[in-house]
Design goal:
Elements (H helix, E strand, L loop, with lengths): L1 H22 L9 H14 L3 H14 L6 H14 L3 H14 L6 H11 L5 H8 L9 H16 L6 H28 L3 H14 L6 H15 L2 H14 L15 H7 L6
Helix pairs in contact: 2-3, 3-4, 4-5, 4-6, 5-6, 6-8, 8-9, 9-10, 9-11, 10-11, 11-12
Length: 271
Amino acid sequence: MKHKLNLKFFSCLSIVALFMVSCNSDGPEIEQPEKIYYDQAQRRINSKNYFGAIESLEAIETRYPFGKYAEQAQVELIYVYFMNSENDASHAAAEKFIRLHPRHPNIDYAYFMKGLSSYTRDNTLMQRLTETDLSNRDVSGAKQSFSELTEFLTRFPDSQYASYAKQRNIYLRNMIARNELAAADYYLSIEAYVAAIRRAKYVIENIPNSSENYRALKVLEKSYKALGYSKLYDDVVRVINLNYSDINIQELDDSGWSWNFLRSSRPKAKN
């Protein structure tokens, strides 16, 4: 009997407490779970806990696919995947957002991050660029990134991300050209002159205005001379003398890369 009275007593207390909260118009509104997940994601992003932010944003996408923060969560997942070095996931998230929300106000950001996530400045790729074994050299990610950022610039020339994309593409273009000429140098070293010529011509014809055009012409000069192609040799020497009388070989410059730019420019939710 006493046990039943205690249960009734606590039940009454609970009802009274709920009534008091609901009647307190000056008190804060009870937050919905979706908002709690989103705020948690923002705190984790601000503290650079990107793994935790992914967990919170994925919870919104899974549990509240039509909620207030669903689209924003999809946008921010592109960013946190990228910052957590999950480039494939970032690229897939960007493609998904483009497919689902082609007229979204932040669609330019999705296209921009799609291109950016195809290639990042990581040590693994840079090591591949400096290895002597040509079979280990792969700039397919850089080529894809260049192509996708070019598409972004065509679609959104006035985007706030356009100037950064242009700067990034200059770097990628020079890196791709340099990779081709690394192969050409290798072929020169083993006297495979026809293969060296093919690589050098590819740079000149398909990667115009790169920092490597002078080096490509020098490969042609050496190859034509070795093969005894006098007329072609004379033509190349003439082009070099006319256009590159005072040349300084430039190193690849990636100093324009800025993580702070990505952090400060990611789309924010509207209150």
